[in-house]
């Protein structure tokens, strides 16, 4: 119950910016107009004009990691409505079939067959988090591995992030291992079972961008605690959830602290029937 109250308060405080979606029922999407993507053949792109009106460095999220972990993934909200709230982020797609990367206001889908696409704006997402990213700190550095990144992020930011959310963008050349899940075998299949069948890809000396969020431990039921990164290559042919990585030489590191985090809780039947750990 505390989570619901926290979420509703946060959404009320950002109502002027337009909450993602309200009034879901029995798995049906709200009929409120989309802010991007005029038809089913148009890839999902955020509106540049509306994006600049949004407060910088506030995260808006649809659903939460506890629900996704429980397999609540059949329905959601349209990606066009998510993109109305930010230009950088991550998430997944219906039935956890693929990984989402949001970069420069475009949502990309990485699937288990190694392909990358830009779904139309009316495609649903069961879980996504975005922000209008305006870096507060810019740094250049080398990264030995994922653990090294986690250790040194505060140094690149130049301040304490222990109890704070943060967003970041990393640009450079990488050696990395990424994944893309193939999707659920049945409704409410837990994410642990889905990722146990995931496809992993190894790439060396690949140019691209990582986007992600740091979530403090106390919010582990909202998003994945710690650092959560997704990658997309410069040529947009490779993307996925980052499992391990190292920079090839120096890379550009941009970081911002996040002080406001709004979450929309689903209300369709699958969510109501789920059991959260």
From TrEMBL:
UniProt keyword list: Acetoin biosynthesis, Decarboxylase, Lyase, Signal
Disordered: annotated segments: 26-51
Signal peptide annotation: 1-17
Statement: the UniProt record of this protein carries the keyword Lyase: yes
EC number per UniProt: 4.1.1.5
Biological or metabolic pathway of the protein: Polyol metabolism; (R,R)-butane-2,3-diol biosynthesis; (R,R)-butane-2,3-diol from pyruvate: step 2/3
Ranges of Polar residues composition bias in the record: 39-49
Catalytic activity from the UniProt record: (2S)-2-acetolactate + H(+) = (R)-acetoin + CO2
InterPro entries, per the entry: Acetolactate_a_deCO2ase
Family recorded in the similarity comment: Belongs to the alpha-acetolactate decarboxylase family.
Protein name, entry field: Alpha-acetolactate decarboxylase
Species in which this protein is naturally found: Vanrija albida
């Amino acid at each position: 119950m505390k989570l619901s109250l926290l979420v509703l308060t946060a959404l009320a405080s950002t109502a002027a910016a337009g909450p993602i979606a309200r009034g879901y029922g029995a798995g049906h999407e709200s009929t409120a107009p989309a802010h991007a993507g005029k038809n089913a053949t148009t890839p999902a792109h955020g509106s540049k004009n509306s994006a600049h009106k949004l407060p910088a460095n506030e995260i808006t999220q649809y659903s939460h990691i506890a629900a996704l972990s429980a397999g609540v993934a059949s329905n959601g909200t349209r990606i066009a409505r998510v993109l109305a709230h930010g230009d950088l982020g991550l998430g997944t797609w219906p039935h956890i079939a693929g990984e989402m990367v949001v970069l420069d206001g475009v949502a990309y889908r990485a699937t288990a067959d190694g392909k990358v696409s830009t779904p139309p704006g009316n495609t649903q997402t069961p879980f996504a988090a975005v922000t209008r990213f305006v870096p507060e700190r810019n740094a250049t550095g080398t990264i030995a591995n994922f653990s090294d990144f986690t250790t040194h992020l505060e140094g690149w930011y130049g301040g304490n992030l222990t109890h704070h959310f943060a967003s970041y963008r990393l640009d450079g050349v990488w050696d990395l291992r990424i994944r893309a899940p193939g999707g659920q075998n049945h409704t409410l299949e837990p994410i642990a079972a889905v990722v146990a069948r995931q496809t992993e890809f190894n790439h060396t000396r690949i140019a691209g961008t990582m986007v992600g969020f740091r979530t403090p431990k106390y919010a582990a039921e909202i998003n994945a605690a710690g650092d959560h990164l997704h990658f997309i290559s410069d040529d947009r042919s490779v993307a996925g959830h980052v499992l391990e990585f190292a920079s090839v030489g120096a890379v550009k590191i941009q970081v911002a602290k996040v002080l406001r985090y709004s979450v929309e809780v689903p209300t369709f039947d699958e969510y109501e029937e789920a059991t959260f750990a």
